[in-house]
Design brief:
This protein is an alpha+beta fold and 399 residues long. It is built from 13 helices and ten strands. It has a ten-stranded mixed beta sheet, sandwiched between helices.
Length: 399
């Protein structure tokens, strides 16, 4: 049976492409979904067994697709973002997608991937990627690569007709990137390093500040974040401040220190009206991209991207997006199975669920396909919204 008939949702996702391209894309994604792996040789063997061809022939077909410049990944990113946004907003009134950015590296070849992943539930689905091989490719141009990556991601978000909040760890704290995001009018929450300096206007206000920075007249007062009065179990909202001693950009900075944690989160954002609880809940979901790396890269629990034999950066980034499409299908199937079998994730009190929704989807995909229509409505109705944690302990440090 044609993969587009077996998985009708793939026809909707690949609609921007030519019919012949749709068929090949659907063949590759359905093979990833059914085999539960994206390791190139294992994937080619699965395709060969299905089509009755040699493994080498299937491998060449995979390589031709990944090398085809007419298969534009921007259209695929837009299509994925649109579907995820429709699914999340269908079950929950989220105004924004949450998209986490991070780097991942592995292997003697020093493969590096810059990934943007949309948060669904407690996990994430890769929607855009850029791969680089070799340490010499990155250091002198890493900032420029990140800026270009972010600009293309923001364009895809807008082409999809949706809105998103970008979530980034300390590796993306540089002021030039914050300025770039602000110019793009892109909402974000980024973690800062504790040595970053902020400038508060004298006579301004900083909710919860125990220092004299909230009073006085004229000029400005600066100090490093680690010098701010913040203790475990409290939070500090500095309000609008100038980041860095040269007052490069004015943004909102908050500090959140959970009890039992070694250090606080210092977050910089252009979400000036969000509460501390909302900002904590948003940034907390950034961890979904770390789980996504295990789901995709892992050789024991994941889709074994680390085992791929692909040696061309552009091909690897394209393959990751196809894995992202499979991950959407796996996640939707996993949710559907938990609705039918509430104990399917084999949860235990001490460890929680032992099977992720994604892994459950891999195991039950073929069985569910035989009795359910896996179209766009099925996926849209079964993609979980971001699972935001509550932070009831949050309160502003007394002044």
């Amino acid at each position: 049976m044609c993969p587009l008939a077996k998985y009708p949702v793939l026809g909707s996702i690949f609609k921007p492409f030519r019919r012949s391209q749709q068929k090949t894309l659907a063949l590759i994604v359905s093979a990833i979904a059914e085999a539960g792996t994206c390791a190139s040789l294992a994937l080619s063997a699965h395709i060969a067994a299905r089509r009755g061809v040699q493994v080498a022939s299937a491998l060449r077909q995979l390589q031709r697709l990944l090398a085809n410049p007419r298969v534009r990944m921007h259209e695929l990113t837009v299509s994925m973002l649109r579907l995820i946004a429709q699914g999340v907003q269908h079950v929950h009134e989220h105004k924004h997608l949450l998209i986490a950015l991070d780097w991942t590296e592995w292997g003697a070849e020093e493969k590096s991937l810059l990934v943007a992943a949309a948060i669904v539930g407690t996990r994430a689905i890769p929607v855009r990627a850029a791969a680089f091989f070799g340490a010499s490719e990155i250091p002198l141009s890493r900032n420029a690569r990140e800026n270009l990556f972010v600009a293309r991601l923001v364009r895809a978000i807008r082409d999809a007709g949706t809105r998103a909040i970008l979530l980034c760890d300390r590796g993306f704290r540089r002021v030039s990137l914050l300025v770039h995001l602000q110019r793009l009018e892109q909402p974000f929450v980024v973690r800062l390093a504790k040595h970053v300096s902020v400038e508060l206007e004298r006579g301004g206000s900083a909710s919860g500040s125990a220092s004299g920075s909230a009073s006085g007249s004229g000029g400005h007062s600066g100090r490093r974040l680690k010098e701010q009065p913040l203790s475990p179990g409290t939070a500090l909202d500095l309000g609008r401040v100038h980041v860095r001693k040269d007052r490069a950009i004015e943004l909102r900075v908050v500090g959140i220190w959970a009890t039992g944690q070694k250090e606080p989160w210092w977050l910089v954002t252009n979400l000036f009206d969000a509460s501390l609880e909302e900002l904590a809940a948003l940034y907390d979901r950034r961890m979904g991209v770390e789980e996504q790396f295990r789901d995709v890269n892992g050789c024991r629990f994941g889709a074994q991207l680390k085992w791929t034999q692909i040696q061309t950066p552009r091909y690897l980034s394209r393959l990751l997006l196809l894995v992202g499409v499979a991950a959407m299908l796996w996640t939707a199937v996993g949710v559907a199975i938990t609705e039918e079998r509430p104990k399917a994730q084999a949860s235990v009190k001490s460890r929680g669920a032992r099977l992720s929704l994604l892994k459950l989807g891999i195991y039950f995909l073929t069985e569910l396909r035989r009795r359910r229509h896996l179209g766009i409505r099925f996926v849209m109705h079964h993609l979980p919204p971001p699972e935001l944690r509550l932070f009831p302990w949050l309160h502003v440090a007394p002044s």
